[in-house]
Structures are given as structure tokens and as C-alpha cells.
Amino acid sequence: MRHSPLLLTTALLALVAPQVRADDAAGLQAGSILVRLRGLDVDPQVSSSVSVVQGSVHASNNLVPEVDASYFFTPNLAAELIAAVTYHTVKDVGSVAGTLPLGSVRLLPPTLTAQWHFLPTSTVNPYLGAGINYTFFYGVKGSDLPIIYSTHYSDNVGAALQAGVDVKVSGHWYANIDAKKLFLSTDVTLGTLLGQVKAKVDLDPWILGVGVGYRF
User: What does pTM read for this prediction?
Assistant: First the structure.
């Protein structure tokens, strides 16, 4: 009887181990949750129309961390939600007064996509996605130019396209490469000593990410 706990533990491990190995081999299944941590390069592709002073708006790119999660309704169909904050400096280039610094702004663009995973049980699993994002503009720091006394960005909704690949590394761990294209517009209003200056700005950033994921 002294050995009964050890025998019981050994028997339980013998029963559970094949199931764990089978689960690892099965890959992504209905009910799986794949949580990823990525590093992102956010590169705005800006086009704009500026009233009064003319010129074109430019926004800097930014490297940021990002957390996302994909929930699998079936082995192939999943929904992904991402969360990240980006920071951009903004300027008006080619205005009637030359290059005008317009300060900086932070963006919170939560994005939800529906994904189709082509090879969910394979080591290499490419996917495509499409969805929607709503971008919040906050933390606005206005221009240092004394002629500009206020800056406002309008929040907006836009479409999102996605392509990527998950590569199974070991057990529940995955490597990930991902690319998104957001179609994002905002109305920028500057309060100046000469009156309001309005700009319609299409940011349309490319978001390129590399990271790791864990399947639950």
C-alpha cells in the first residue's frame, strides 16, 4: 500500500500524456485561443488636402509593442482583436510658409478582423483577414509655432485587410509574421491667428508585425 500514490500518479500520467501529445499534434481547433505578442512597425501612407496654407501633411512611422488574441470558431475561421498605441509627429510640408511643425498625436486603433486559416493543423499556417477598426486620437501636443494655438483630430472608423502566417515552434508555442493595411481618415482642425485651417488627412498605415504566440 506504501506505493499506491506513486502507482496512481503513474497511471494518471499514462492516461493524460497521450491526450496532451494528441492535442499538440492537432494544432488549432474550434475553441482554441491564440494570444500573440508582436513588435509593430506602423508606417502611415499619408495623403491630404489642406485649406488656406496648402501643402501636404506628413506623419512619422513608429515602432511599438502590440498584444492580440484570435478565437477560433472552427479550425479555419477565427476572429482577431488587436490592441496597441502608436505615437506620431506631424508636419505640413510645402505650405505657403514652408514646413510647418504640427506637433504630435497618439493613436489607439482597436481592430477586429475575421480570419481564414488555410492549414490550421500544419506547422506552417497562412491566413487572410478583413475587418474594421475605430481609431481614437488623444494625447495631442500642439505646434510650438505661436501662430497655432489649438489642434484637433476627429476619431473615425475604417476598414482593415490582413495577411500573415503562424509557424508552430514547439508544443503550444508559435512564431508569427503579420501585415495589415488600415484605411483610416481624420479631419484635422488647427486654430490659428489667421482663422481655422482644416485638413482632410488619409493616414492609411501599413502595420507590419513579428512576434510569438501561445495557444490555449
Answer: 0.81
